[in-house]
Each structure stands twice: as C-alpha cells, then as structure tokens.
Amino acid sequence: MKLGRNDKCWCGSGRKYKQCHMNFDEKLDEYKREGALVPSHKIIKNKEQIEGIRESAKINIAVLDYIEQHIKAGISTEQVDRWVYDETTSRGGIPAPLNYEGYPKSVCTSVNEQVCHGIPSEDVILKEGDIVNIDVSTIYNGYYSDSSRMFCIGEVSDEKKKLVEVTKKSIEVGLEKVKPWGFLGDMGEAIHNYATENGYTVVREIGGHGCGIQFHEDPWVSYVSRHGEEMLMVPGMVFTIEPMINMGAQEIYTDENDGWTVYTKDGKPSAQCEVQVLVTEDGYEILAY
Questions:
Q1: % of the chain at pLDDT higher than 70
Q2: CB within 8 Å of 22: residues ≥ 6 apart
Q3: Do 115 and 272 touch, CB atoms closer than 8 A?
Q4: Phi, psi of 129 (to 5 degrees)
Q5: What residues have CB less than 8 Å from 65, skipping those under 6 apart?
Q6: What is this structure's pTM?
Q7: How far apart are CA 146 and CA 209, in angstroms?
C-alpha cells in the first residue's frame, strides 16, 4: 500500500511519512530501478527494536566475557554449555540455540578442525594447544543477539595463532566497508581478499545473517562476494559478520551422526569470529562481539 505524504510512517515512529522515511524510500526505489537488490521494510529495524537488540546484546557480551575469564585446559565443552545457560538465564535471557531446530545445547563449541555448530560434550576436554570458537546467542524480551569469539587454550602453535589473528583482523577489515548505501559484497570481498592474501581459504556455504527480531533473518551474508554486489546496506539493517576461515582447503562437510557439526574436509584447523552490527546513518555500530 502506497503511503501519502501525511500518513504515519511505516516504521512505527508515529511521524508523518514525509518527515520520516519518504526520502529513504525514494532512494531505495532509485537503487532498485538501477538493478540493485534492496532490503524490504521488514528488514529495517526501528528505534524501539534497535534498543531491544542492544539490551539483548549486553547479555550476550557478558556471557562471552565470563567464558573468556574462565576457559582453560581441562574444561569440557559441556562445562562451557552449563556456564552459558547459567549466565544467560541469571540475567533474564534465554539461550537462543537451545532446541532451535532440534539443536540440543545452549551454545556452539567448535574445536580445531570443527568449522562451526560443534555440540558441547563431557567427552570433549579442551587441551593445551587447542583453538575453540564459542558462539553465543541470546533472546531477551523477544529480541535476539548473536556473536562469537575465538579462544586459544594455553600455548598454541604459531600456525594456529596466526590463523586466529587473521580471522579476528578480517572482521576489522570487513567493518571498514560497512556503510549506508554501500553493498554487502563490498564487505565480503574485503574479508575474502584479506584472508586469501594471508594464505587461507574462506568457507562458501555458510555465512552471516540478519538477526534481531528472529534468530536468522534476511539478508544472507557471504564472504566470497564481490564489490558492488549482494544486498544494499541501509540505515536500520542489523546483521552478523562471521567469516569462517580455513588453514587448508575451503571444502567442508557435516557430521552424519549428529547432523550439526561442520568440519574441514582436509582436517586442518578453522577459525571464526562473529560480530552483530547495525548500519547507521554514517557508518556502523557494533551491537554484540
């Protein structure tokens, strides 16, 4: 339904359309006519929604901070799962992964050659020299947040250390390209180029995603994309940046037994970091890290 200039804006601000998103929509239409993939209104978060996501993200960050202070060799990934559940619920949140499409735990713990979606277990004991990704997602008052961090357990090899450092740095490189009226492909290409220049490969099949009102929303975010391609980034978009970078080849496979854990096909280590970002009028805001 086309809004009149004096109608209330579709975003829920209560303001007249002409004073709120009319110019925004005209700009979107211009990009669309030029062939760009533009976001629908349902992707754009309003101020109330953004504030709700921020509050959820505070819990997500606090949980990862707790893990960072306590994770060490000799700890099982099941213990990490208990920490996440306890720390999330004690703050009034709900672990988003728990029972999501049948996932049995509150967090994903991916060790060494596990690319993502590793299931916590009493049988997986973190040991000196391991690298592990802890992927935490939180629901708070109906709003979703999502971020992950890489942890080096004790002294790790120089090879693993470099992989983790490059993966962390790739997020910074990608963020430099997050700006309104740019394209997701600008960010994806920057991350891909940085990883490959350092001798690594980037997972193609799994990427980032919109997040905030639901756990996984549009857009899907690739890190093997090209400048000027993929969806247009506009103020109010919230999505994750979470490249999975492999020391060896890019090929991966999913464990047939648990249906979740993704591994590198060649058995070499993989690393992933994740931030949740909001596109603003002049750049971006990191909501969760």
A1: 100
A2: 3, 5, 9
A3: yes
A4: 100, -10
A5: none
A6: 0.96
A7: 10
